[in-house]
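Changelog-linked ticket: adenosine-5'-triphosphate example.
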Amino acid sequence: MVTGPYQAAQARLDLEEPQEGQVRAVPVLVPLALEEAYDYQPPEGEAPPPGTFVRVPLGSARRIGVVWGAARTADVAPKKLKSIIEVLDVPALPAVSRRLVDWVANYTLSPRGMVLKMMMSAPRAFEPEGPRFGYRAAGPPPDRMTPAREKVLNVAADGAVRAKAELAREAGVSAAVIEGLAAAGSLIRVEMPPPRPALPDPEHAPPELAPEQAEAAGKLIDAVRRGGFSVCLLDGVTGAGKTEVYFEAVAAALARGQQVLILLPEIALTSQFLDRFAKRFGCRPMEWHSAMGAAERGRIWRAVAKGEARAVAGARSALFLPFADLGLTVVDEEHEQSFKQEDYVRYQARDVAVVRGKLGKHPVILSSATPSIESVVNARQGRYEHVRLTSRYAGAALPDIRAIDLRADPPERGRWLSPALVSAVRDTLAADKQALLFLNRRGYAPLTLCRACGYRIECPQCSATLVEHRARGKLTCHHCGFVLPRPGDCPACGVSGKLVPCGPGVERVAEEVAERFPDVPAAILSSDFTTNLSEVRETIARISSGKARIVIGTQLVAKGHHFPGLALVGVVDGDLSLAQGGDPRAAERTFQLMQQVIGRAGREESGGVGLIQTHAPDHPVMRALISGDRDTFLAREIAAREAAVLPPFGRLAAIIVSAGAKPEAERYAQALAKAAPPAARIEVMGPAEAPLVLIRGRYRYRLLVKAPRNVDLQAFLRAWMDRAPLAKGSVRVIIDVDPYSFL
Ligand SMILES: Nc1ncnc2c1ncn2[C@@H]1O[C@H](COP(=O)(O)OP(=O)(O)OP(=O)(O)O)[C@@H](O)[C@H]1O
Ligand SMILES: [Zn+2]
């Protein structure tokens, strides 16, 4: 058994001796789809305290788990209880993290072990850290001296230990030179202490804040200095400098020696953000997202657990890092739907960040130019402090937004840009500014149709048409990833040359741009291309620097970018996201998306323009965008939600029943609905065929549960599932509390 420094400090001896027929038992939760912790015998009479990572036998395997409660005396024969194999030399999982696991599991109706699994998603953190070696000067100079060797010895003359690559880099020589010097005895290889993350310095480069910014920052700083739980909604127009403002609260927390977590919706793309952080604090924050390597994950997990990592910028999963002393969480772009995780444990990261603040007694800042209705209502009802920024930094005016009525001013046949939009792009280029054309649809065309027989090419495993990606010569399913090489003949009737693409995606708009503006450098920014992170980052840099004059992008371009030369944003299809029937947030989301994407225009100089192509210029969302009257829009939307008892005034849970065969799914969904316990104030709707009835070969039915805010929805759902008929065969049931997707 290993007892390292963490356990040595925490271990306590159990003095109470078990009686005959009794045994000391410690509950251990393992990161599997299990609800409860299992009992184990502590190693050698010494009970590891709650939070300790231990290795235990489970079935025929060994697993790493966490001690989930205090040791107690159990009435079991000692033989019946397996023993903890080993106590790991890893910092214990803090009590706040354990309470968070319990809370998330209870709220989302997920097995506790699955939530713990998210907290342990860095397997390398639990393996012993291998020693690192470096070189320092030693012994006499080598018999054979070369200029390269001399350079190395000059660098090493200070006696410091450096990793091989570092020493080679500093001396400007190859690694072989170092090895040669070590063989000659002039350098010695020694063990190095583990690397420590760079410390962000709160005093590194404080900005000069505009008066309104300073006032807002003051309120955020107060919350940090006061300590304890609070939530501030930092609500400021696009380009107001919200980042600069919340950085001051970050600085205040760092100055108190606490850790800071900043959640970003697209961390993999936000090198701009990391650089801004470095400019303010002297070094980049630690990054945490799915594109990181295993070794790095392990290193960061440990650094966070030891309190050495002071600032972490991450995707939603960073919430589940084992912070030793978290003093502030910032959720940037808090309205973003991508904060909702849509598989395994279905949680909304913004909400969990608030809960984490409550459990850990620290402030939380939610920042957005287009806050969610949920947060606006919380601010109005006084649960959140509302901190506003009403004007852009540097005094630039907000963009002027106008609709292009496609009924009156349509594009030519087979084109997607109306004459009005084309001439606006032309004027923008003539003024030496950049233009952005926004269409939230990847690929070339969303539908391929056979003119001979009318067949629409669909995914064999999903009820969805395949999207053409012309650059790759493929048709792809955006739901399951199915790929078909672009056929020449119709797969249904076999006639050749009759397949036509219908409707536009960004690639097709880019094609039109290339035809209309052949000599103008353009760039496409689409999440298709995120497979290659460095390429996307390069594209963003090309746009920021002004090299790309026309940008064609999906919602990826809407996310917090600052492109100084961008003056015009044209929305190719403003009606696209409004058409999501059955989604209570469709209007809200359209409003946010349009405001965000148009908010990229005119950030450094006034005169930014947003043009929205729409068939419904009189729709309340369009009217609100054009008049810039956010408050009226919000008031309307909030009143409608309240009247319909929709979030945040009511609570929703979706239940998705799926099976390999349609009748099987339907039958079970109906049986499940019948088993719902009677509850006066809870409404169960459905089952109904899901809008996407088939995904990955599974047929889907949906039920929607609606309850007033003060009803214990989880208790109802649990009671229901306890009475539900057994799901047999291929039937699966998913519960999605607070759903954001209604497909
Ligand atoms: N006090 C300041 N001093 C210097 N530069 C500032 C200051 N405040 C803001 N800026 C600059 O103004 C630009 C816009 O700021 P920022 O990106 O933080 O806006 P934002 O409020 O986050 O906007 P959005 O919601 O549109 O992303 C940035 O380039 C930022 O560096
Ligand atoms: Zn598919």
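Closing comment: Example verified and attached. The radius of gyration is 29 Å. The CA atoms of residues 214 and 245 lie 7 Å apart.
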